[in-house]
Specification:
The structure holds 2 protein chains of 2 kinds. Chain A has 7 helices and 8 strands, in the order αβαβαβββααβαβαβ. By secondary structure, chain A is an alpha/beta fold. Chain A is globular, with a radius of gyration of 17 Å. The two termini of chain A are 32 Å apart. By secondary structure, chain B is of the alpha/beta class. Chain B has a single domain, classed as Rossmann fold. Chain B contains 8 helices and 7 strands. In chain B, strands 3-2-1-4-5-6-7 form a 7-stranded parallel sheet, with helices on both faces. The two termini of chain B are 31 Å apart. The chains are: A alpha/beta, B alpha/beta. At the A-B interface, helix 6 and helix 7 of A face helix 5, helix 8 and strand 7 of B.
Chain lengths: 243, 253
């Protein structure tokens, strides 16, 4: 949500993709009231590629373009710069919370096989689905763009660790493939919960906030980051630099 | 982020040319007071005048980063003029290119003296001043050559020096975090500057180098400056100890 707010505040038209129709209406109202830009919430089941495809196609039809795609656990959105021609997009992926609660941080001994599959379905597939279809749309029209993938980073059980590694490599692989088409792909690693032992505390005493994530996304999505390709910014308050 | 640095004071070593100068210009446009240093007096004067032309309060101090006394004078002058220091960009560096078999010990020592010792002492003195200002942000200019070895433009000494810069970045981030000083590095790939000009004179070498860049082009100093400005700003308050590639995708391959 902070990401959508930030992109809208910078003048982007914003499309939020999500599963929860009621929440999407609330997001539309809040964002358009706060920033006076065009905001649309489109209901999408990320497990249905056709729905993702038509939502992104709809985005391009309404705004006449697609400049930015943000995809990840903390929300997926797309944006179009300068709301007139061109739209930004943000897609909101379903949070990786199953009926039994969030199992991604569960230990190996407690993790059920289905938990792992659910984590992949909720955390990895939506990012892949959105980026793949957005790339196809942009490349097909010869348009440049910028994708930002939100990786969680930090502590967690094996399911979350595997997801993070997968997203990190997905960023790099997509970045290398799409760079010749003028589509930059980068990431933000944003652990939003305090690390637990055996991880030491982060170096900085302030916690990473959704606004920090939004600021990093806005930078990566902008022309200021025009030579950044396949970079994942660690918003981990120094956790990854020290032991 | 324009205007994001108004009231802030920024020191840029190696700020008279290339990435350093582009960085000084970026901060000047953002409203910062800027102090640049370099070893070439004429170049220093011209660069300072250009910064002033942007409407910035800018000063050029002649300073060789291999001499700690001159760095003392640089920061003393900064405090005398501005009475604060918010950001220090350690960019001063050299890039010799001698095949390993022919490289001399003197060349290695000189490279390490500028790229590592100079950056070490620059950061140390900047941090001492920042402690008195309640914190700050230090940005090192590393290189993709600090992470992977270049196939073009053999330079074992340069590669080793930039590897040291990256690890210094992490070590200083640990030690300076309690003082509310963030320390990060940028790792530029092939950027079109004087330093890489020799590459541009050899089309075959340039083509080979660019073949490893997914974006298919060299970067501009301004593109590195934008990342440095982001890392130095409050927008990156959650980032420390990071070495961030700005390389057109070289390290993603």
């Amino acid at each position: 949500m902070a990401i959508a707010h930030r992109l809208a505040a910078e003048g982007a038209g914003v499309v939020v993709l999500g599963a929860d129709e009621e929440r999407l209406r609330a997001v539309e109202d809040e964002l358009s009231a706060a920033h006076g830009v065009a905001v649309y919430g489109l209901a999408v089941r990320f497990a249905k590629p056709k729905e993702v495809e038509s939502a992104l196609g709809e985005t391009m039809r309404v705004f006449g373009g697609l400049d930015v795609v943000v995809a990840g656990l903390h929300g997926t959105a797309s944006g179009v710069k300068g709301a007139a021609p061109g739209a930004a997009g943000v897609a909101e992926s379903t949070p990786a919370v199953t009926a039994q609660g969030d199992r991604r941080s569960t230990t190996l001994s407690e993790l059920e096989d289905d938990d792992f599959s659910r984590a992949v379905d909720a955390g990895l597939r939506p990012v892949y689905a959105v980026c793949r279809r957005a790339a196809r749309l942009l490349v097909g029209r010869g348009r440049a763009g910028s994708f930002v993938v939100i990786v969680e980073g930090g502590a967690g059980g094996p399911a979350r660790a595997a997801l993070d590694a997968a997203l990190d490599h997905l960023v790099k692989a997509m970045a290398v493939e799409l760079a010749p088409n003028g589509i930059r792909v980068n990431g933000v690693a944003a652990p939003l919960e305090a690390p637990a032992p055996p991880l030491p505390p982060p170096l900085l005493s302030r916690p990473t906030t959704p606004d920090d994530v939004a600021a990093a996304v806005a930078f990566l999505a902008s022309d200021a980051a025009s030579y950044l390709v396949g970079t994942v910014l660690p918003l981990d308050a120094g956790l990854g630099a020290a032991r | 982020m324009n205007g994001a640095f108004s009231g802030k004071v920024v020191v840029v070593t190696g700020g008279t040319r290339g990435i350093g100068f582009a960085t000084a210009q970026r901060f000047a446009r953002g409203g910062a007071g800027v102090v640049i240093c370099g070893v070439d007096g004429e170049r220093l004067e011209a660069a300072t005048a250009e910064l002033e032309g942007l409407g910035a309060t800018a000063t050029g101090v002649r300073c060789d980063v291999t001499d700690p006394a001159q760095l003392d004078a640089l920061f003393a002058e900064t405090m005398r003029l501005f009475d604060r220091l918010d950001v220090c960009v350690a960019d001063a560096g050299i890039s010799p290119s001698t095949p390993f078999a022919e490289a001399t010990l003197d060349e290695l020592r000189h490279t390490l003296a500028v790229n590592v010792e100079g950056l070490f002492v620059t950061s140390q003195k900047a941090a001492a001043v920042m402690r008195g200002c309640g914190g700050g942000s230090i940005v090192h200019v590393g290189s993709v050559s600090g992470a992977v070895a270049d196939r073009e433009g053999a330079s074992s000494a340069y590669d080793a020096s930039k590897g040291a810069v990256h690890q210094l970045t992490r070590a200083l981030a640990v030690e300076l975090a309690p003082a509310r000083i963030r320390v990060n590095a940028v790792a530029p790939g092939w950027i079109a500057t004087d330093m890489t000009a020799r590459l541009h004179q050899h089309p075959a070498q340039l083509a080979a180098a660019l073949a490893a860049v997914p974006l298919g082009r060299t970067g501009r100093p301004e593109e590195v400056a934008e990342l440095i400005a982001f890392l130095a700003s409050d927008e990156a308050a959650a980032i420390t100890g990071a070495v961030v590639p700005v390389d057109g995708g070289i390290l993603a391959v």
